[in-house]
Design brief:
The chain is mainly α and about 425 residues long. Helix content is about 75%, strand content about 0%. It has one domain: MFS general substrate transporter like domains (Growth Hormone, Chain: A, Up-down Bundle).
């Protein structure tokens, strides 16, 4: 059997070792996306560590404080509808650099806030605009650089979210406990600028600009290039696959981000320390990282549609653990397992968009799709906070999150496979 590689064969790190073949530049693009998502979502998901401090500082309810995260989440998922087309036209690098500047500035300015409104403006706008400028362009660009191993590459790129969720809340809790929440925000802002802006310089929009095809083969003629194929945005958004993915993303997101805001305060409500709460959120990050690798890689074998169904159903099942738990160990198990399926969801949505619609307008289509997640994020965590204020527990919020994920799984079951 011939072992000759085509332009769309998946590269291996062994094949790209020094002395045999230069490392495929697509992996540098993956590294840039990893760093940008690490900084952006690490900053966003560290918010849970600040909830108690902000409540005490500004004498605010948990629902009012939760709205800070919801506003940021709404912005960074909804802005993809603008930043995706901008990246398709002007390139991902300037969008990602601008995003990292916004994130850093928002964190630093939040450290100087005099009231909760200032936190809304600084953190909400800064992190919201920053992630909005960088996330969709980054993940869209990765899709262009890979074909057969797209699920794995996409999962590796967005595993930055998992590592950010693991490390940034723990770092934030440590800083809050030693230097206070204001200096913690300023320190995270400086760190974000150093890491995010530097790595964003590695972005290159299309493999053809380096004389390559996806996965590292020689460049194909324009007519045959995978990057040149694809459904126009106006056609894609009217199609059944897009509308189904949109509905699933919308309904699931009502509950998807509730743990990211409320798991730490839930833990402190049970008598745990802020550090233990940050550890639980870190376990979500660990699981998220595993899920991006595991489900992204498995999806390349069993199909990305089936893998996405498993991700939604898995999140629903693991939320049951949170519903009946109030001690560290079972909550850590919840964080790890929920994060695994959540990570699969994040890795698989962009890859499925590429499967159904091709690469020419990938960032634009992902940007419109993620407005569904924006709406769910705006409502879900804030509603959970006000439900807690009303009932003094999270039972209603968790049950609602379970139901939302099950409905999303059912919606994806109705999809036909790409190309059929």
């Amino acid at each position: 059997m011939s072992t000759e590689k085509t332009g769309f064969d998946a590269p291996s790190l062994d094949d790209e070792s020094p002395g045999r073949k230069p490392l495929f530049y697509g992996w540098f693009v993956v590294a840039a996306a990893f760093a940008v998502t690490f900084v952006g979502f690490g900053a966003a998901y560290s918010f849970s560590a600040f909830v108690d401090a902000l409540q005490q500082e500004f004498s605010a309810s948990r629902g009012a404080v939760s709205l800070v995260f919801s506003l940021a989440g709404f912005l960074y998922f909804s802005l993809g509808v603008v930043t995706g087309p901008l990246a398709d036209r002007f390139g991902t690098r300037p969008m990602a650099i601008a995003g990292m500047v916004f994130v850093s500035a928002g964190l630093v300015l939040a450290g100087f806030a005099d009231n909760l409104l200032h936190v809304y403006l600084a953190y909400g706008l800064g992190v919201g605009l920053g992630v909005g400028c960088s996330y969709v362009p980054s993940v869209g660009t990765v899709q262009r650089w890979f074909a057969r191993r797209r699920g794995f590459a996409s999962g590796l790129a967005v595993s930055g979210i998992g590592f950010g969720t693991l490390l940034m809340p723990i770092l934030a809790a440590l800083l809050i406990g030693t230097v206070g929440w204001r200096t913690a925000y300023i320190s995270l802002g400086i760190l974000s600028a150093l890491v995010g802006i530097t790595m964003a310089l590695l972005f290159v929009n299309d493999p053809r600009s380096k004389g390559l095809a996806p996965d590292g083969g020689p460049a194909l003629p324009t007519a045959a290039s995978g990057a040149s194929e694809g459904t126009e945005l106006r056609v894609a958004v009217r199609s059944r696959p897009f509308l189904t993915l949109y509905f699933a993303g919308l309904i699931a997101s009502f509950g998807l981000f509730v743990p990211f805001v409320h798991l730490v305060p839930f833990a402190t409500d049970q008598g745990m320390s802020a550090g233990q709460g940050a550890f639980l959120l870190g376990m979500v990050g660990v699981g998220s990282t595993v899920g991006r690798f595991l489900l992204g890689n498995v999806a390349d074998r069993i199909g990305r549609q089936l893998a996405l169904i498993l991700a939604f159903a898995g999140m629903a099942i693991t939320l049951l653990i949170w519903l009946v738990s109030d001690t560290l160990v079972p909550l850590a198990i919840f964080g790890l397992t929920f994060g695994t399926f959540y990570g699969g969801f994040v890795a698989l949505m962009p890859a499925l968009v590429m499967d159904y619609f091709g690469g020419r307008h990938i960032s634009s289509i992902i940007g419109v799709l993620y407005t569904s997640v924006a709406l769910g994020t705006l409502v879900g965590p804030t509603a959970a906070g006000y439900a807690y204020d009303l009932t003094q527990n999270y039972t209603l919020a968790i049950i609602g999150s379970i139901a939302a994920n099950l409905v999303a799984a059912g919606a994806i079951m109705t999809l036909r496979k790409p190309g059929t």
